[in-house]
Amino acid sequence: MADPELEAIRQRRMQELMAQHGTQGKQGSQQNPDQERAQEDAKREADERRQMMLSQILSSQARERIARIALVKPEKARAVEDVILRAAQMGQIVEKVSEERLITLLEQINSQTSKQTKVTIQRRRGVFDY
């Protein structure tokens, strides 16, 4: 395979990857700045609504605890927030979630998602072990 053919394949692959991710490098950002701005605004509004709902559902101590969890494990904090919001939308939460209730919820989530560690020991075989 000649070098121009290899370069053409690389360019095609890069274009496919960029299309999959929805970005076209600098050209895409110059063509649709209004679209990008609208997406950012929509995302910001959704985050603000989410935070407002959480502030209504959670007590101040529970919000602080989730904030501390988010510093260490942001995906876990997001999952806990999702569970709380889903429960509130279903009507399962009628009063503000206290820190104690949040702790029990965290323990339940940890027990469901705990990873099982398995240790296997492989012994080296000597010449006479066969």
Automatic annotation (TrEMBL):
> Per the record, where are the segments of Polar residues compositional bias?
21-33
Basic and acidic residues: bias regions: 34-48
GO molecular function terms attached to this record: DNA binding
State the GO CC annotations.
cytosol; nucleus
Region Disordered, annotated ranges? 1-48
Per the UniProt record, one Pfam family is: dsDNA_bind
Q: Which InterPro entries match?
A: PDCD5-like, PDCD5-like_sf
Looking up PANTHER family in the UniProt record yields: PROGRAMMED CELL DEATH PROTEIN 5
Family, per entry: Belongs to the PDCD5 family.
- What is the protein name stated in its UniProt record? DNA-binding protein DDB_G0278111-like
- Origin organism of this chain? Brassica carinata
